[in-house]
Backbone:
């Protein structure tokens, strides 16, 4: 298992800027070195692994220390004098529990573990509503209603404490009743505890305060599910008064008794939670529970929280949410002046253990190269630490391959606190819609192997980051002067991040794009820039980036699409921005074909195929592309990913979906296997045998070229496997030749 892991606070920096590195090491010490990454394939049958040592002041040995990740989301409010002097109280909320059978989970509470003082409204051990009380002298008592709540059903829950009578009242009101199902009620119970002691601990929601560790708050007893409209009052309320507090407003008759009333329908794009009472006890969420969620009062009339925010007053908390691992800094690199733009990493070694923390070095301003490689860090975030090898029940059926588990897969399965990918589900079964880079991303590493077995003795079994490093190795091999820019840079800087360059090159799988990124690339190509899209399944999902905190993306998997989970109806809009989620294909005139000429059409994970040249390949407009390549040559009937250049995930040209009418389809793939299926969004009526490779003309990759306004151009290959054919036979092949021809012409400022 892995003995050393780490991450950085940023994924790109220019010379003179700083990057902080956080490291967890189970051994006494480790050695850190900065290296330039050139080829990440360390398999015995692939091209030679290549890295270059960079001498910097941080290259030295460091003391090892364990750093822990505390996963689980909650909301926190600083302690307030009005909460610290409570004698009697009522707490209430609307809840939608998703795992009520899993034992005690805290809904709301003000608790001090040091002396066991305070109170907490909980889902009790029996799955029903409970109230936990602490005397401050180590004595605690929990009373419960005794009727388990149903999973994924809304309840109005409340509990009150009458100090004089030493009496607890519990209310568990289902918002939907079912004939013969008894899952609600109320109860009044006397307790043995003499008093409920107050404390100065913070008020928490969806978790119980445990301790402080430096700047971090550590909690326990995490709640899974939604919470809507939490309230705290300084006296025992009657059932009628509790009912009157269910809405989004505070009745004037109760204004003096309400200490706090949080409205989660406000500040949905923020980490802030707002108290609408006069005491203004605002707080914040930790580890990014899901916002923009349907509340208990959702009617279905509006599907966007922007149009009916009052019906989206719920936050969905999970016991495995993670935003920032929160580790302390171990060392800090100031990027050396004059360091060439490229992909670098902090290489960490401790005994036999090894870890890499990749980052991009951007060019110094005013010294940009004509060529820029777009490192798809947002895509890496989407796949970060995915658990498909363990959690994907049909993975082997889809791929026709046996999963081969490596140390990283085993480590991530055991250490779920390292967070999940956008392809995973939470422990309560809901989809993971947020993913962060502020944690170790263990599958964004050189030398990383996927879980699939290899077809053919030279298949290197690589995806994502190491496939993208093939493009770096290719440009280094042919002496191209290039820069590296991340897609996160493009999101924040727009077209200004691209304008210094003549041509931009994508990685093998630039699947996740925000509106800012898409618009920047589109505008770049229409202002005379050139785009080389050298992958497949690109520009597919629309994502949003948080507007207050860095390094996190959001996806809402909705409508017809290839997806591992689906968003609930009414939760299709991003909480970070309010934009509609889903596929770019469903967002008006923003289809991938309009941007790149091709769009996602099929996927298969067994054997890759090749391209056959078409009549368009003889068009004089693309004569530069085929220099040194004969008319009858198959393009890419070889490669390190499935044995061919056309494979894994494929894109096709389609005039109806926006491919420019003057585009040339210069080559198209053929002869794909039965495991290649047409994507869901193409299927209106499913029928036997109609969606697989040999039977459907939509199963293909198209190689496309077209000119854009102001002398620009686009070249697209429509295949994830394409880049893995570049280094075949030490780059002496027709894929490398064709791609090099295109890059040389695209880097030439002469207008098309």
Residues:
């Amino acid at each position: 298992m892995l003995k050393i892991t780490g991450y950085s606070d940023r994924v790109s920096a220019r010379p003179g800027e700083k990057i902080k590195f956080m490291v967890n090491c189970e051994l006494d010490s480790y050695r850190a070195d900065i290296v330039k990454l050139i080829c990440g394939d360390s398999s015995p049958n692939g091209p030679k692994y290549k890295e270059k040592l960079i001498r910097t002041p941080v290259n030295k040995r460091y003391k090892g220390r364990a750093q822990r990740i505390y996963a689980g989301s909650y909301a926190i409010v600083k302690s307030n004098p009005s909460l610290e002097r409570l004698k009697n109280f009522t707490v209430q909320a609307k809840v939608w529990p998703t795992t009520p059978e899993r034992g005690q989970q805290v809904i709301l509470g003000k608790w001090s573990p040091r002396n066991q003082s305070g109170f907490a409204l909980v889902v009790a051990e029996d799955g029903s509503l409970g109230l936990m009380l602490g005397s401050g002298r180590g004595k605690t008592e929990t009373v419960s209603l005794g009727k388990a709540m149903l999973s994924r059903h809304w309840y109005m829950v409340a509990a009150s404490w009458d100090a004089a009578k030493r009496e607890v009242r519990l209310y568990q009101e289902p918002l939907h009743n079912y004939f013969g199902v008894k899952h609600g009620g109320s109860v009044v119970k006397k307790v043995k505890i003499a008093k409920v002691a107050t404390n100065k601990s913070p008020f928490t929601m969806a978790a119980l305060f445990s301790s402080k560790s430096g700047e971090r708050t550590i909690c326990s007893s995490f709640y899974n599910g939604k919470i809507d409209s939490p309230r705290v009052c300084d006296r025992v309320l009657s059932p009628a008064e509790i009912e009157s507090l269910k809405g989004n407003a505070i009745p004037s008759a109760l204004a003096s008794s309400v200490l706090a009333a949080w409205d989660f329908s406000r500040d949905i794009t923020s980490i802030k939670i707002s108290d609408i009472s006069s005491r203004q006890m605002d707080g914040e969420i930790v580890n990014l529970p899901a916002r923009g969620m349907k509340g208990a009062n959702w009617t279905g009339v509006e599907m966007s929280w922007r149009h009916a925010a009052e019906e989206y007053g719920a936050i969905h908390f999970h016991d495995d949410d993670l935003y920032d691992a929160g580790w302390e800094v171990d060392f800090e690199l100031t990027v050396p002046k004059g360091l060439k733009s490229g992909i670098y990493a902090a290489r960490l070694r401790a005994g036999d253990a090894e870890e890499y923390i990749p980052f991009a070095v951007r060019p110094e301003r005013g010294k940009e190269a004509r060529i820029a490689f777009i490192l798809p860090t947002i895509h890496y975030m989407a796949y970060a630490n995915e658990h498909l090898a363990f959690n994907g029940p049909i993975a082997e059926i889809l791929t026709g391959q046996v999963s081969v588990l490596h140390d990283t897969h085993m480590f991530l399965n055991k250490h779920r606190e390292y967070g999940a990918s956008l392809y995973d589900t939470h422990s309560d079964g809901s989809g993971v819609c947020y993913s962060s880079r502020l944690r170790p991303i263990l599958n964004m590493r050189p030398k990383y192997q996927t879980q699939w077995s290899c077809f053919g003795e030279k298949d290197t079994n690589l995806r994502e980051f190491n496939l993208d490093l093939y493009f770096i190795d290719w440009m280094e091999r042919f002496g191209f002067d290039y820069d590296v820019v991340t897609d996160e840079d493009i999101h924040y800087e727009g077209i200004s991040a691209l304008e210094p360059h003549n041509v931009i090159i994508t990685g093998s799988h630039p699947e996740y794009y925000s509106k800012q990124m898409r618009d920047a690339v589109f505008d770049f190509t229409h202002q005379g820039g050139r785009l080389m899209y050298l992958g497949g399944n690109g520009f597919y999902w629309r994502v949003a980036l948080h507007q207050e905190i860095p390094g996190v993306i959001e996806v809402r998997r909705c409508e017809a699409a290839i997806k591992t989970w689906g968003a609930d109806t009414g939760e299709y809009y991003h909480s970070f921005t309010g934009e509609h989620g889903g596929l770019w294909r469903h967002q008006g005139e923003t289809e991938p074909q309009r941007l790149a000429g091709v769009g996602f059409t099929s996927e298969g994970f067994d054997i890759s195929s090749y391209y056959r040249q078409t009549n368009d390949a003889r068009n004089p407009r693309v004569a530069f592309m085929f220099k040194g390549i004969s008319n009858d040559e198959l393009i890419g009937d070889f490669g390190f990913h499935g044995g061919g250049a056309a494979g894994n995930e494929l894109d096709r040209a389609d005039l109806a979906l926006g491919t420019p009418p003057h585009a040339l389809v210069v080559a198209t793939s053929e002869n794909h296997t039965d495991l290649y299926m047409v994507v869901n969004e193409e299927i209106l009526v499913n029928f036997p045998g109609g969606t697989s490779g040999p039977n459907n003309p939509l199963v293909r990759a198209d190689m496309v070229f077209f000119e854009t306004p102001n002398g620009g151009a686009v070249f697209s290959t429509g295949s994830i496997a394409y880049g893995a054919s570049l280094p075949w036979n030490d780059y002496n092949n027709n894929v490398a030749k064709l791609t090099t021809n295109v890059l040389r012409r695209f880097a030439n400022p002469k207008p098309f």
User: Anything to note?
Assistant: The first helix runs from residue 81 to 84. The longest strand covers residues 599-613. The CA atoms of residues 260 and 280 lie 7 Å apart.
